[in-house]
Amino acid sequence: xxxxxxxxxxxxxxxxxxxxxxxxxxxxxxxxxxxxxxxxxxxxxxxxxxxxxxxxxxxxxxxxxxxxxxxxxxxxxxxxxxxxxxxxxxxxxxxxxxxxxxxxxxxxxxxxxxxxxxxxxxxxxxxxxxxxxxxxxxxxxxxxxxxxxxxxxxxxxxxxxxxxxxxxxxxxxxxxxxxxxxxxxxxxxxxxxxxxxxxxxxxxxxxxxxxxxxxxxxxxxxxxxxxxxxxxxxxxxxxxxxxxxxxxxxxxxxxxxxxxxxxxxxxxxxxxxxxxxxxxxxxxxxxxxxxxxxxxxxxxxxxxxxxxxxxxxxxxxxxxxxxxxxxxxxxxxxxxxxxxxxxxxxxxxxxxxxxxxxxxxxxxxxxxxxxxxxxxxxxxxxxxxxxxxxxxxxxxxxxxxxxxxxxxxxxxxxxxxxxxxxxxxxxxxxxxxxx
Length: 435
Hints:
By secondary structure, this protein is of the alpha+beta class. The protein folds into 2 domains: 25-230, 2-Layer Sandwich (Cytochrome Bc1 Complex, Chain A, domain 1), CATH 3.30.830.10; 250-376 and 391-430, Cytochrome Bc1 Complex, Chain A, domain 1, CATH 3.30.830. Helices cover 42% and strands 17% of the residues. The protein contains 15 helices and 11 strands. The protein has a 6-stranded mixed sheet with strand order 1-2-6-3-5-4, sandwiched between helices. A hairpin with a 5-residue loop joins strand 1 (25-28) and strand 2 (34-39). Helix 2 packs antiparallel against helix 3 (116-131), helix 3 packs parallel to helix 8 (218-230) and helix 12 (355-367) runs antiparallel to helix 14 (395-404). 45% of the residues are buried.
């Protein structure tokens, strides 16, 4: 199922799920970076995430793709080290450097042993990547061509074509309409000066969120956070993104030589701090987020055999992210499958879940919750989300109680506020007449 979500959007096992409380310490460095830290001595490992509001929604006007290109080049030469030298330094100490990028965030992650020699060398490499990217001209040319080639390849994938068209239709002129990868013609013209300007403005200490998880003390965590923030730009905190406008019904059919129709429906949904978060999250499990337990699967697949899979999800972001419903079906069944999906959403918004459906959803969600925090990496991912989206520090401690507190009335009211079945955006990619 092609979902990139902050729900999903979440190696080593950590026996922490049985504990009642996850103690999250937090503070701010002298440079203005926000820090979240969980101490855990069970494994000799340290995981670090450093996130910035430098996703594709921050692409400057007329320069889609600049944010992703900048992020992708951070570890391709930094602090006088080539990309090959960086890779070798990390391999020598058994460390792993990775990245994350979406419409809201751009981040760098490090996993290293907590022993002093290995940790110090890995941290030195991370600091170079964050603080002193070189943006070598030869590498810029190489990465631009690689990114352009990737975009061209995606044009042959009907699922990707549908996803891009869906965001454009849903968000219009809002920055969330920007494709994360950008546009080939624009990427070709981006310069090293563009990269440097974007980096200095967005990868600054006041914009940074540093998350640490693992085998170190509070004092050691403070020293690491200061070390990472000290060499960052002092550029001011970025302004908030504009709020997306709720759209009207929109129907687009894109002709594509696909053996199946790819169907997406949706609406502007909720932000990460939305007060309706839990009613929408739990309610959507019943509608289309619960796999074979969901209504969409029963109506579209089980009863009629129109699709192997049908799903729905909310993707909460800094501002209201999308609510999306998706399925793939035979070309000749497209209209019928679409009508069933639309009718299922309409009935759910009108009536909400049954008591039995809601009880099962809450049981499944809370029963699976320990698996969400059963490793250092998963906890680090949650720390990064909590820090970046400024969620309550007890978010994980209260998660089960808030799921259990959702009732049928809350679900009905939340969906009525957010989803108008008469104003859904619909995108179909497949053979047939364009419209």
